[in-house]
Write a structure and sequence with these properties.
This protein is an alpha+beta fold and 300 residues long. The radius of gyration is 25 Å and the shape is globular. Helix content is 25%, strand content 30%. It has seven helices and 16 strands. Helix 1 runs parallel beside helix 4. It has two domains: 144 residues, 2-Layer Sandwich (Major capsid protein gp5 fold); 117 residues, hypothetical protein PF0899 domain (hypothetical protein PF0899 fold), CATH 3.30.2320.10. A five-stranded mixed β-sheet has the order 5-16-10-6-9. Strands 4, 12, 13 and 14 form a four-stranded antiparallel β-sheet that branches. It has a three-stranded mixed β-sheet with strand order 1-11-15, with helices on one face.
Length: 300
């Protein structure tokens, strides 16, 4: 490239690219909007270790002078998650750079937006369904979550929401939610409802001939959830690749999203006739400390 100043990446080009890389639309990052992002781990780390605690024992009434004092204890188990690199890149040709220079404009940064979305989609997929190839577990398949089958009360004993009435869907959500709220300390927990795209859209159906609200509006009126979100990875998350919904307690004591290094643009690489711009993120998926605060309902 010596002497060919019309085909170089300039500072204004890189600024335009960075602006898009670092300012992704919130809606594409569902996991980030639901959970605390843990970013205080060094990006050079290959694993992250954390403790999972379970309590044993209960208090009881004892008689005066009795020595049968009940004891409670904490069982601590050490768990580890691997930290991986998620990477993607894009290219600008010599001619694209020449055209931008001729028009006195920055290069079209749309390619950076595509890369940002690709990395975000992989990050979200790791959070909700993990990655079997690398033995990464997500919110829908980590050991210890509560898993139940949808009730076979729809038309023809179907479990699918498309065969159920709005009232039956509402009741199924209520019953599943109660599996978290009945746990000690979870009565007023902040919960999120995550649904596959098709079932999420079903919540916009009118509740009844006598109630013009949608199913979603009825559910929100109950105050059951802080968030109701659409998650494509739940389309086949259940047993037998069935569609599933998740009800999740979203505090950091239950789960956090581990991102030691957010999306970072690396140094551009030249190989005629293109400049290649690699980008990477360091991600450990979900750190799930209390899996019992998650309910998966299969077959909806």
């Amino acid at each position: 490239m010596a002497g060919n100043i019309t085909a170089t990446l300039e500072a204004r080009d890189l600024e335009a690219i960075d602006r898009i890389l670092y300012e992704a639309p919130k809606e594409e990052l569902v996991a980030r909007s639901l959970f605390n992002v843990k970013s205080d781990v060094d990006p050079g780390a290959e694993t992250y270790g954390y403790n999972v605690l379970t309590r044993t024992g209960v208090a009881k009434i004892i008689a005066n002078g009795a020595d049968d004092l009940p004891l409670v204890d904490l069982d601590m188990k050490r768990e580890f998650v691997q930290i991986y690199t998620i990477a993607a890149g894009f290219r600008y040709s010599v001619q694209e750079l020449r055209q931008a220079k001729m028009l006195n404009q920055s290069v079209d940064a749309t390619k950076a937006e595509t890369v940002r979305r690709a990395i975000a989609e992989k990050e979200n997929s790791l959070a909700f369904s993990g990655d079997n190839k690398y033995n990464i577990k997500g919110l829908s398949n980590v050991t210890g979550i509560q898993v139940v089958n949808a009730a076979a009360i729809g038309t023809g004993n179907s479990t699918k929401w498309k065969d159920k009435t709005p009232a039956q869907i509402e009741e199924e959500i209520r019953v599943a939610r109660s599996k978290v709220t009945v746990l000690p300390g979870y009565g007023a927990a902040g919960l999120a409802l995550a649904l596959p795209p098709e079932q999420y859209e079903m919540l916009d159906k009118r509740y009844s001939d006598f109630d013009t609200r949608t199913i979603k509006e009825v559910i929100r009126a109950h105050g059951w959830f802080t968030d109701i979100v659409r998650v494509a990875d739940l389309k086949a998350a259940g047993t037998g690749k069935t569609a599933s919904m998740l009800i999740i307690e979203t505090s950091r004591t239950t789960a956090e999203l581990l991102i030691p290094m957010d999306v970072t643009r690396l140094e551009a690489e030249w190989k005629y006739p293109n400049w290649t711009i690699p980008n990477e993120e360091r991600c450990g998926g979900m750190v799930i400390r209390a899996p019992y605060g998650i309910v998966r309902v299969d077959g909806i």
